[in-house]
Amino acid sequence: MNKVVNDFSIIVGTKNGSGSSTANTTILRAIFKMGIPVSGKNLFPSNIQGLPTWYTIRANKDGFLARREDQEIVIAMNPESFTRDLASVAIGGAFFYADDIKQPVTRADIAIYPMPVKQIVRGDPTIPNDFRDLVGNMVYVGVLSQMIGLDLETIHAALSFHFKGKQKPIDMNFNIVKASMEWAKANLEKKDPFYLETMNKTEGLIMADGNTAAAIGSIFGGVQFAAWYPITPASSLADALNDYFPILRKREDGKHTYAVIQAEDELAALGMAIGAGWSGLRSMTSTSGPGLSLMTEFAGLAYYAEVPVVVWDVQRIGPSTGLPTRTSQADLTFVNFIGHGDSQSIILLPGSVTECFEFGWKAFDIAEHQQTPVFVLSDLDIGMNQWMSKPFEYPTTRMNRGKVLWEKDLEALRGNWARYLDKDDDGVPYRTVPGNKHPAGAYFTRGTGHDEQARYTEEAPVFLRNMDRLKKKYETARSYVPAPVLYTTEGATVGIIGFGSTEAAILEAKHQLEMEHGIQADFMRIRALPFTQEVSDFVAKYDQIFVVEMNRDGQMNQILTIEYPQRAPYFKSVAYGDGMPASARWVREGILTRYTPNAGHNGSSNRAQTEPREAVQAAMASSNNTSGDQK
Amino acid sequence: MTQPLPMAGTPTNVNLAGLTKGDYRGNPSTLCQGCGHNSISNQIIAAMYELNVVPENVIKFSGIGCSSKSPTYFMNRSFGFNSLHGRMPSIATGALFGDHTLKGIAVSGDGDTASIGMGQFKHVMRRNVNMVYIIENNGVYGLTKGQFSATAERGLALKKQGSNPYMPIDICMEAVITNATFVARSFAGNAKQVKELLKAAMSHHGIAVLDIISPCVTFNNNETAYHSYAWGKDHEEPLHDITYIAPRNEIMLEAEMKEGEIREVALHDGSVVILKNLEKDYNPTDRFEAMRVLEEGQRNNWLATGLIYISTDKPTLAETYELVDTPLNRLQEQDLRPAPDMIDKVNALMF
Fold first, then answer.
1. Is B116 within 8 Å of chain A by CB?
2. What's the DSSP call for residue A130?
3. Do the interacting molecules here have an ipTM over 0.90?
């Protein structure tokens, strides 16, 4: 049997609320500390306790870390999902299960390893009764350690980190790991080919989740005010603000330069954030789709009254309550046009934990420069899962507080200024903020029609002038938002466009297309709306451009089509949204079913564009056996 | 914009802030002739002038509706935010964090507060945001031409609307229940009381709710209607005669104000409210009494006015956040962005 080293996936099936996340992140971190590229994704139900839940871990020596549909190693700790877990093991894979689950093990094409979880835990008299179930999860960590070579030292490092150096829980858990390892050594015979071996490919990297990165990035951006309302998967962003503010903005006098308020609902959360942004604070809120629906009215006000504020939308799948614990990219068109009437908003699209940090601070510069709301669309996958990441980098530019006039500025102007006057011909006017003591400093902000002096008016030409200026301001934003990231290939004939958390899946699919199908593709990951010049250049270049995204309707494709109507025939939407993080397989299949070989220059080949969503769906459905919400 | 000049021929009466009454004025009202809201705007101007308030130290807030247009009719030199229907409290809550030394004056209506905005109204009181929250209460939607509001009394008959089938919401009762720290009711027809209550509210530390019955002369002013001028005049039962005494002013009791007939309430800024007993002694620091007097008013068809409840020892929202002395919106990059070495520290905190 040929060894398979550092290239396989593990899935752990447990009961929600059983405390398995400690064990799962311990495995993830231990592999990371072994220098092996690794990703972990928690595929969990909307439930506090009792429903089946899964955690997938992918180790890959080449750094391909998207979710995979196939699992070589399956660990079954939950009787309820046992049959399904057993069926999901790839041929030639390994199946570990708690031996108190008395269900038939019916497969001969895989290695089977029963684990005496209860016996091992009971064998340690130091463990209090009510901790037995929790530390029981450490049994599979220890068994894996023996069977696939998960390093004991790095397990210990992971436990020390998890328990913040507290010796008692570290020892309690680590003792079970060791005992389980010993048990496996004495009782299990290795019958599978999977091994972990130390590498050096994670050196200098950190592990973090996007919500924490966003919060820390925001603090480095000088955020002063955050209002929020609890919602999955965004709550941990506000939690992280509360965790890191005291560390990062500690002052000797013990006083605070910031405030975090849990509002009564999302309407109030954005209302407060807009109030604070209006009065000159770097201000934000964080939410998900349902919250954003409630915030829409306020978003329109902030757009029209020109108030800077940063709104994080950690996307989950809708419509309505949808699947609250499943990831998505389906808020894009909604946010692009958020608010009634003519409006278009600036959107940032972080594709990694690093970018959550970077856009955390950058969003304030853009919002204050543009005097408008900036929406940052992350998603559950980036936001809540632990990712390998480059370390956070200190902001590379000074804060841009935008065009704010204080007393001395007004004195220099002799009080002559007008809130909504396009003085610099960029659509961005000047503003003052409350507390400005100059007698000509104040103005009256309103969501009603207003003239350059912010006075109420219903005059048609004045209204039009203002709306045109807002449009011009949006155009100005094109040169202030992050440019896309380009991955080019020698001799590329097609383009792929993606954004956000699909990057890993697209890069892997791009590699497979090249290696296995001889299709060379350039990949552009869009990082902001409005589109920058780089996006215009990219879409003009290829006669087949695959727009990959995790939603039903192909929303990025819709926006590209509006923006570049003359290029519409060349866009091919690869859209799929079932709540699961993107996999290389669905990206590849999606592209292949839409790919036209030997297409003429600029897409002169007219092969049917009505390529079948059904075919893609079928491909997805057959491979998609880890979705935790299917029964 | 330049500083408005006093009108030619008028004597310049300058207050302690160095300002004339003109400095407290706003644009001409576009509300109906005789609207109660206009007299309230006038009393705000008078109260602010007499209190020597610096307009730049005040932020005006409002929601949507006739009442919410009012902030354009007073204090043009103050910042103002005419926000969304029922959502003014959240805007004010956030905005007052920008500079904690500023005081908010919010104007809302009965629809804006007791219907669409009930949730935010409740929570702004719960948080004790440092502002005066005036409800210009007329029982009717004016801008949309005369529908019932949530404070309209049961049985009120309005043109096109028929008879109101629902019990009214009592704004003061809601405020007392929610632990608002200052709750008062007045009647736009009682200008002196409105002004004294406004002054007390401005000196209060925290949220000051003023429910002012402010008749709508166009849609709801039949003399039998609870929110009409005639009904208010006939049924007003002031709890006391209220006089506001500014800090530093010696309290001169009038001859007829005798020991035992008056009650003094000391406010946070050193000012004092003198409450002269009318028919009986009323203690506005007793929440139980406040509930009783509101319940009595409902049962007996009285319009009980005056300072219904006050609590002077609760921290404001900004205080609970222990902010730096410098207004947050004047902090600089070095105060807000952690030092470069903190990035290594934070990376070390990650796994």
1. no
2. G
3. yes
